[in-house]
Amino acid sequence: MTGREALVLPRRNEDADFGSGSVFFVGNATVVVRYAGFTILTDPNFLHAGDHVHLGYGLTAKRLKDPAVEIEDLPPLDFVLLSHLHGDHFDRVAERKLNKATPIISTRHATSYLEKVGFTKTHSLKIWEPIDVEKGEAKLRVTALPGTHGPGPLGAVLPPVMGSMLEFGRMGEEARMRMYISGDTLVHDRLREIPRRFPDIDLAMLHLGGTRVLGIFVTMDAGQGLEAMRIMDARTTIPIHYNDYTRFESPLEDFKRAVANAGLDDRVHYLSHGDTYGFEVPAR
Predict the structure, then answer these.
(1) Where are the beta strands (DSSP E) in the chain?
(2) Which residues, other chains included, contact 56 with Cβ-Cβ below 8 Å and sequence gap of 6+?
(3) Per-residue pLDDT, 152
(4) Torsion angle, alpha carbons of 153, 27, 143, 86, to 10
(5) Integer Cα distance of 270 and 280 in angstroms
(6) Which of 88, 179, 212, 241 is most buried, with most CB under 10 Å away?
(7) What is the pLDDT, as a whole number, of residue 157?
(8) The Metallo-beta-lactamase domain covers which part of the protein (predicted)?
(9) 106 phi and psi, to 5 degrees?
(10) Alpha carbon distances (Å) from 251 to 97, 183, 208, 210, 274
């Protein structure tokens, strides 16, 4: 687990627990991951029900559900992992209230903006590029993965997006746990390269919802979510990003039905806002 760049966290991390961890679902694509002494926030979105986000080109969406917690109530964060710069993934609340010294790992498109508004510890990744995050005896490698936010010309006008692979382990040892976060993507050819490079994925979080822009899907609906689940073949899959905004047109119930029909219920864990998924990690 060595990379071109390392983010060394100043906090102590003695007796890091590699045997268990948790995922707390805030809402939309926002989760708090806690494992091996790390606390990670993804795609911070803390607008309330009734608030609107701007998606560009005059398009807006209205939030339908409140986040499970307010941003002020988050635990101390080691870093933020941001899939892309869209109003429902990094909103005006996050821009205003996150500590500007919080490290943020994202695309270059996103970090360029974040630097302009005062964030001082941004780290941009190209697709397939890693960064190592070190905290005491624990090391986490984050690798940016390919995502396709929209088909053809539509994809070219949407913000560039990255999925992420998180590989946790002790310093000097092989990865103990692999966690995949899809980002806003459709199923595409390069998606199949991910499990070839990163086999034995323990946990996958898939951005679903069947979001439409100009009538065209820009995130996975139930059918694509099932296909992505089969491609990644993770031990456990958690669907997120499925019911918070008006442009979501593929409800979670559709995905549940597809999973049940495929006989894969035992491979999926469903979270509602405010739920925590606790997981155990056996020794490899």
Answers:
(1) 6-8, 20-27, 30-35, 38-42, 52-56, 59-62, 79-81, 104-106, 122-124, 130-135, 138-146, 162-170, 177-181, 203-207, 212-213, 216-217, 236-240, 276-280
(2) 157, 158, 159
(3) 65
(4) 30
(5) 17
(6) 241
(7) 65
(8) 27-241
(9) -165, -165
(10) 31, 18, 9, 8, 18
**Inter-residue contact 174 to 250 (CB < 8 Å):** no
pLDDT at residue number 154: 59
User: Which residues, in sequence order, are CB contacts of 99 under 8 Å at separation 6+?
Assistant: none
Which single residue is written with the structure tokens 């060394």? 8
- In order along its 284 residues, the chain shows pLDDT tens digits of 334 678 999 888 988 999 999 999 999 999 999 999 999 999 999 999 999 998 766 678 999 999 999 999 999 999 999 999 999 999 999 999 999 999 999 999 999 999 999 999 999 999 999 999 999 999 999 999 999 876 666 556 678 999 999 999 999 899 999 999 999 999 999 999 999 999 999 999 999 999 887 778 889 999 999 999 999 999 999 999 999 999 899 999 999 999 999 999 999 999 999 999 999 998 86
Tell me the two tokens of residue 68.
């499970």
Structure tokens at 49: 């029900």
Alpha carbon 112 to chain centroid distance? 19
267 contacts 237 by C-beta, under 8 angstroms: yes
85 by DSSP, 3-state: which? coil
Question: Which of 18, 163, 12 has its CA nearest to residue 83?
Answer: 163
- Greatest CA separation found in the chain? 51
Pairing of strands 38-42, 52-56: unpaired
User: What DSSP string runs through 111-160?
Assistant: HHHHHHTT---EEE--TT-EEEEEETTEEEEEEEEE--SSSHHHHHHSPP
CA distances from 182 to 2, 15, 155, 205, 260 (A): 23, 30, 16, 6, 21
